[in-house]
Amino acid sequence: MSGATQTTPEVVWAQRSSKHDEERNYILLTIAAPDIPPKSLKVDLKPTSLTFTGHSETKKTTYHVELVFYEEIDPEKSQTHHTSRDVIFKLRKKELKEEYWPRLLKDSKRVHFLKTDFDKWVDEDEQDAAPDDDLPGGMGGMGGGMPGMEGMGGEGGFGGIDFSKLGGGAGAGGMPDMGDLGGDEDDEDEDNEMPDLEDEGEEEGGKGKGKGKEEEGDEEPAGKKIIEEVS
């Protein structure tokens, strides 16, 4: 790893909560760290924190991030799924309750690498209606301590997760600003009208000049009239 840079990976998260069903009381955490083989991945999951480190030889960088949770989770009942693009954690909340966590981290200070996973997020009052197939399945158990990810499900397979919904870049954010488009059309119309007026003016002016020359050409020179009168 000598000479490799260190990168803080992007982290996105969503959650579910339940006062009675621990299966629906968890944090869904995705760490975007591509091209990390299992042997180069180290995760230390504790009730109050997660430390993630993984080296990518193809990217020539080491991904590293430390997260201190808002409340405690249960490492023994948590799960993970490792792919060539990222590592997904399903972290079981320790306390059963209806209310969502107000944030993921204990510290309320905003961090640039942490974002909401809007593809998986469901409002607190609508989570009971969320279909089960939107939730990850077939994830490997975390085991205890997690010094080297021995309990992971491995890189093979996708574990029933719909990765088309984990991409995050699509949606209204990619749409062009329709207001700007409308303004451009108006400007183009105005630009297109102006040359027409100028062309018409030039044509009329050109015709006027040509006509003047023709009228001037119809008049006989003054010298010629005087010669005819003398003779």
TrEMBL record:
Residues 164-176 have a biased composition (Gly residues). Residues 6-105 form the CS domain. GO terms for molecular function: Hsp90 protein binding; protein-folding chaperone binding. It comes from the Eukaryota. Residues 164-231 are annotated as: Disordered. InterPro entries: CS_dom, HSP20-like_chaperone, p23-like. One of its GO terms (biological process) is chaperone-mediated protein complex assembly. Residues 182-203 have a biased composition (Acidic residues). One of its GO terms (cellular component) is cytosol. Residues 204-214, 221-231 have a biased composition (Basic and acidic residues). Belongs to the p23/wos2 family. This is CS domain-containing protein. It comes from Cladonia borealis.
